[in-house]
Amino acid sequence: MIRPSFVLVLLFVFPVAAPAADSRAVPAAAAQVVLSYAPVVRKAAPAVVNVYTRASTDAGAAAAVRRDPAYRRFFAPGEDRLGHSLGSGVIVDPNGTIVTNQHVVEDAGSIVIVLSDRREFPAELVRGDDRTDLAVLKINTGGELLPFLALKDSDELEVGDIVLAIGNPFGVGQTVTSGIVSALGRSVDGINDYRSFIQTDAAINPGNSGGALVSLDGRLAGINTALYSEGGGSVGIGFAIPSDLVRAVLTPSEGVGHRIVRPWLGATGHTVTAGTARRLGLSHPSGMQIENIVPLGPAAEAGIQPGDVILSIDGKPVADEDGLRFRFATLPVGATAKLGIWRGGEALDLDIRLLAPPETPPRKVTQLRAGPFQGITVANLSPALADELRTDEVAGVIVLDVPRGGPHLRLFVGDELLDLNGQAIADVGQLQSLLPRLSAPWRATVRRDGRTVHLAGS
After folding, report:
1. Which residue is catalytic, options 84, 103, 196, 382?
2. Active site residue 103
3. Is the pTM of the predicted complex or chain greater than 0.85?
4. What's domain 366-457's superfamily in CATH?
5. Could you confirm whether 258 is annotated as catalytic?
6. For this structure, is 244 an active site residue?
């Protein structure tokens, strides 16, 4: 039997090899024209499941459905054609571990998995991670081993590779579509924090979320997550979360409850532009140039300096700032990685310890009781809290909550308090000591979305 992958190579090669139109031959036997993905589908399809959820109220269920990025682009407000059929999932080990999208099961009161043979099982949420938009579920089959998909190394994918998308679009039942890898490392906002996706033209529609993107070797290359469409239907631009990120969520090195803790670089920077690349002597714009380094953090310990460009991690290229964030998210806390660095016109390698962001100083969450900040809740920023809040700032005092009503110097959640009446604020304790001694008018400086904002009140 000729393997499908081998036949597909011939399909691409044959037209190039033909020297002239009259040299083409009509197939002499049916076997020469029977090309099929069926062997791959037979292997992969039984491992793709349907995910149903039931929220505490019907309104909650409908709201959960509409959080599907694909759904939001298709249905008008108030429509609920999918009912409680929220999406798809993939069995990734024979004991009943299933991966789907976090937005598929978010706020679910109960979760039911329907296998490809139509058997139903209640599922337990093992881990939900909104930063990746991935969730891990578990079903109990009483010891029966299930068909599953092994994870592919998503770095093995190349643009042009043929892939299959398997899921349950629009609740019509399991459906297989085919296409190619259109792009890799595609940065897309609004889906997850790591913005590094496989783009494919295999049709992905509402209900496909959480389903499998399968390579022709029958392995899981990614989890289908969203589509781009102005009208709602598939226009050949779909996005899948790479399997390397799926693997990191399946086997987290450390966690607190359902929250996953990932390695911390201890430095910030920006994507290398074409102009920066020319100035630094790089052959092309690639990597992230370091701007700020946290004292005593992993980057400082590794010997990274401001101005260095991180080009690779463990030999895998880093295209930009999003690519660096993605690579770190796939690595386990406690290990060591090798960074490829460009410094002063030369390439060098540095070893970095992969450490969890520390809870230093303690966050000391406090509701203030005096002065113009009365009722506001603040905390000490630490690398750990900054990671939870998804901010690059790792020191100072941050606003966690602002009560409704009353003048609060127009403060907002996420503001970092820098100074009060000209005196720098280092921590919550210092802020508390300043408030009783304030004299009007009050002046405050905050950092908001990377900008410095001056506020005043009386």
Report:
1. 103
2. yes
3. no
4. PDZ domain (2.30.42.10)
5. no
6. no
